[in-house]
Amino acid sequence: MTDETMDARAVLHRPEGDRSARARLAIIICAVLLVVIALGSLGWGASDASALGVVLDMISGGAESVPARDRIIVWDIRLPRIILGMLIGASLAVSGAVMQGLFRNPLADPGIVGVSAGAGLGAIGVIVLGGSFLAPVTAAFGIYALPFAAFLGGLATTLILYRVATRRGQTSVATMLLAGIALGALAGAASGLLVYVADDRQLRDLTFWNLGSLAGATWTKIAAAGPIIGLTLVASPFLARGLNGLSLGETTAYHLGIPVQRLKNVAIVMVAAAVGASVAVSGGIGFVGIVVPHLLRLAIGPDHRYLLPASALLGACLLLVADAVSRTIVAPAELPIGIVTAAVGAPFFLWILLRRRGLLDL
Asked: Signal peptide location in the record (predicted)?
């Protein structure tokens, strides 16, 4: 065994110190914060429906005499929206962390490098052509047709991106970003063509869907996207050791006994599935995958054993807060959530670029 391999094993299995304790504390804080934000969102809205009153009415078997309108608002509107927001926020943040570990660069993000655009193209194809050309697909997959089509679009984009940006085990950041821009533009052109042939009803749906929103959250959408997102979130911690080894280089990771190619294949499919399912039910919500992992990496370090679960929790928190802002900033109307995340994420992305180039000493 070479000295380099021994040093690498020491890095992967070093005794846990203050950084690990801080990471565990951060995970606990994020979990508590998520519970608080979710409970607050359940009782916060344009309507004066009391979430506490509805819950007490359910517990007491109807003794509280809560109006049926309040039950509908809490259980059929607010609760599905909160659950879907947590699932999507967690999946986008974890997908960003996995992509950054796979490409070994903090600038990788499903929205920036075109993966979300590819997933969106698949979803738009089903929305526009689901009643005609793709009718057999929608009939065969039912409510899963939209997530499945988005998954295929995201998977194709991710595979092309990885092939183009990686050579001899090294990923070029400039090539990755340029390829992402090109793939996003190509997916956008194809999506524009589909929008051109859409009817008036489909156009209205696509306009708000492209901006990203949780307004259409229903239990049916949760049933369609929830199992896919949940499976990717459960599977993500099993990639932690491999991503830690991959951060030392593919050659070193291979000598550590990590099945590098299988790790890359699983990571690519997982990201495509998570992003595809999220985009299918919420539209384009960007920058969650770059903001959350980068903030956590600064706070608790790059160890994916802690980074992945912390990203899931903080991503869910961030999206619930963004959704609350979108519901209240222009009340009684509603601002698309994609606008809110872009307003925060775009300056943050520029800050990362400047910091990496040494133009900011922060």
From this structure: none
